[in-house]
Amino acid sequence: MATNAEIAARFEEFADLLEADDVEYKPRAYRRAAENVRTHPSPIADRVEAGDEAVLEEIDGVGDAIASKIVEYVETGGIDELEELRENLPIDIADITRIEGVGPKTAGKLYRELGVQTLDDLEAAAEAGEVQEVKGFGPKTEQNILDNLEFARTVGQRQLLGEARPLADDVLAFLESIDAVQRCEVAGSIRRWRETIGDVDVLAATDAGEDVVEAFVAWDSVDDEIESGPEKASVRVGESRVDLRVVVPGEFGSALQYFTGSKDHNVALRNYAIDRGMKLNEYGAFDVSDVEDEEAGQRVGERVAGETEEGMYEALGLPWIPPELRTDRGEIAAAEKGELPDLITREDIRGDFHSHTEWSDGNTDIEAMVEAAADMGYDYYGVADHAEGPGIVGGMGLSDTEILEQVEAIREVGAAADIAVFAGIEANVDADGEIGLSEEVIDALDVIVASTHSALDQDAETATERLVTAVENPAIDILGHPSGRLLNERSGLEFDATALGKAAAEHGTALEVNSNPRRLDLWGSAVQAAVEAGAPISINTDAHQPSTLEYMRWGVHTARRGWAEPSDVINTWDLEDVREFLH
Ligand code: DGT
Ligand code: CA
Ligand code: CA
Ligand code: ZN
C-alpha cells in the first residue's frame, strides 16, 4: 500500500520533470500537492482504496486533475502521465538537482543539449568542457558544477536536526564574535526546527558585508568554500553545508522573514499581503497601493517595515508567527483571528517519563539518571526500562519478576531523592495492540509507556486499529514513539493521527513526542492533529544515559510544530495532576 510519503515523492518527481520540460505553473501546483499529501494526518491510499474518495477533497491544493492521479496511483501503482514524462526525460533528476545551482530546468537543458542523465554523465561533460558551450552556461557555471559535484554525491540524505542544530549554534557563536556583525540569526528549516535539514542557513546584519563574508569563509571549522560573493557565501563544515547571507541592518527583519520560509508559508503570506495592497520581499514590506506598475522593481512603493521581523507581520496587521508554525497549515488565518497558540517552551517542562537504565539497555544505574533529572530542575522523573516482548532482543527486556524487583530498587532511590520518582516500564505493543503484562505488575507500576517495536510494516488501517486498541487499554498511560520510525532509516507505521488522537482524548492516554533526534515521533503535523482532537501529549527523551536527557529540546520544538500549548502536555503539569493522570 502506498504511503503518503510515496505518493508525495511521485508528485515531487512529477514537478521536477515538468519543470525540466519547461512547463510553467504546473510544477508549483504539484509541489504544493506533494507537501499537503505528505503531511496529511490520515493515510490517503487506504481511504481511497476503501472507496472514501472524499478524503481527496480534504487536501488543500488537490483539485480534480491531481485527485484522479492519486486514484490512478493507488489503483495501479503507477501514473501513466508520469511514465510518459520519464520516457521523455530519462534523467536521474533527484541526484542531478542536488548540485547547488542546478535545478530541474538546468537539468532538462543539460539532457536536451548534452544527453546528461546522471551525475557521472554531468561530470564527464563538465570535465570535457562541453557544459560551458551550452547557451546560457559559461566557464563559471561549469566550474561551479565541478566544484559541487563531489559534495552532491556525499549528501544524499538530509541531516538530522539533532546534528545540524548544534553546528548552527556554533556558526552563530562565531558570527557573534565578529565586531562588524550587529545581529545574526539562523534561518531556513533550522529555525523552523524541522526534523531533518537540507542545509544550514544563517543571516548576519552588518554594514561591512564583504569583511564578514571573508571572515566567515576563513573560519577554522570550514572544510571547503563552495562559493562566495559580496553578499553571501556557502561553505562545507563536515557533512553540512552552511549558507551565510549578509544584509544591511535595515533589511535584517525582512531577510530573516524571507529566508526562514517555509516556501509555502511565504507564498501564502505574500498573497495575503497582495490582497491588502502590500508587497513583501527580502528587502522589506512595501505599500504599493499607489504604485501603478507592480513589477517595477523590488524596492518600489512606500517602505513600511524591514528592520525587524515583527514589523513585517505587523505591517500586515498580524502578530509575529513563531517559525515552527510557518508551514501553511492554518497559521496565517489563526494569526488574523488572534488565535495563535501560546506554544509550550522548554521552561514549562517539569519532568520526563520515558528513559532507560542499565536494568535494560541504558548505560547507567537508576541513581545516576535520577540525579541528572534532579539537576535539570525537574519535579518528577520516570524510569521506563524495556519489558521483554515482541521486538525486544532476548535477555534485554525485563521479565515480570525482574520488573517487580526493579520497582523495589526504584522506590529505594526515590525515597532518597529530592524529586518524585515514578516506577515505570516501556511495554511492547504487539501486532494486535496488546501489551501482555500481568495484573500484579500493572498494579505495582506508577507509569506504563507502551511502544511498538515489531510489525512495523502493517498497513495503515491495521496499524491505526492496533494503536487505538493500545490507547483504549486503561493500563497504558503513554503510547511511546507511535510510528516506530527512524529518520533516514525506516518510515515506521503509517496511521490516522486524527483517529488516534480522538481515541487518546477519550481514554485519557497520552501520545508521546519521543525527543530522540533519530525518532521525533510524533512529529509536527501528527501532533497538530492529535492536539486538535484533544489528546494529551507527553514529551519524553527515551534517554539511555544522563546526557541525553537534554534531548528534551528537540521534543519541545517538535511539539511546538504541532501547535501544542503547555496545558496539552502532561510534562508541564504539577505533581498532583500528573499523579492523578497516571492513576
Ligand atoms: P532545507 O534546507 O531543505 O532543509 O529547507 P529550507 O527551508 O532551509 O530551504 P533552503 O535552504 O533552500 O532556503 C531557505 C529559505 O529561503 C526557504 O525556507 C525559503 C527561502 N527561499 C529560498 N529560495 C526561495 C524561493 O525560490 N522562493 C521562496 N519563496 N523562498 C525561497
Ligand atoms: Ca536550509
Ligand atoms: Ca540554503
Ligand atoms: Zn522504544
In words, what does this structure look like?
- This protein has 583 residues and is an alpha/beta fold.
- The chain folds into four domains: 4-154, DNA polymerase, domain 1, CATH 1.10.150.110; 159-247, Beta Polymerase, domain 2, CATH 3.30.460.10; 252-336, Beta Polymerase, domain 3 (2-Layer Sandwich), CATH 3.30.210.10; 346-582, Metal-dependent hydrolases (TIM Barrel, Alpha-Beta Barrel), CATH 3.20.20.140.
- The protein is built from 25 helices and 17 strands.
- Strands 11-12-13-14-15-16-17 form a seven-stranded parallel beta sheet. Strands 2-4-7-6-5 form a five-stranded mixed beta sheet, sandwiched between helices.
How would the blueprint of this fold be written?
Elements: H1 4-20, H2 26-38, H3 44-49, H4 55-58, H5 64-76, H6 80-88, H7 93-96, H8 104-114, H9 119-127, H10 139-154, E1 159-160, H11 161-176, E2 181-187, H12 188-191, E3 196-197, E4 200-206, H13 209-217, E5 224-228, E6 232-237, E7 240-247, H14 252-260, H15 263-274, E8 278-281, E9 284-287, E10 302-305, H16 309-314, H17 331-336, E11 351-352, H18 366-375, E12 380-386, H19 400-416, E13 420-428, H20 439-444, E14 447-451, H21 460-472, E15 478-480, H22 497-507, E16 510-514, H23 524-532, E17 537-540, H24 552-561, H25 575-582
Parallel strand pairs: 4-7, 11-12, 12-13, 13-14, 14-15, 15-16, 16-17
Antiparallel strand pairs: 1-3, 2-4, 5-6, 6-7, 8-9, 9-10
The structure holds 2'-deoxyguanosine-5'-triphosphate, calcium ion (2 copies) and zinc ion (ZN).
